[in-house]
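ok so i was messing around last nite and threw this chain in just to see what happens. nothing serious, just curious
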Amino acid sequence: MTIEGRPELQVDWQKQYDIQRKGRLQDVVDDYFQDEEITPRRFYEDLISTVTELADYHEAELNKAKEVLDLLHGTRFKDLEF
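result:
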């Protein structure tokens, strides 16, 4: 029996994911650079805006999680509405 045509089972999945993630970033940057109407300033501002939105989202989720932990620990039990 030959092993030709069998898939590789010893794959470094983290490395594969890293390569794919970089490729997705490359696609986005290429999209901005290929658009004649997009200036470097617009690319910069969109990048800043995107990272800021991500930070704001995660901060809101963190605050929610902290409130739940406070409730679970009983430190905010008096604030609950029944």
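not much to say yet. The first helix runs from residue 13 to 34.
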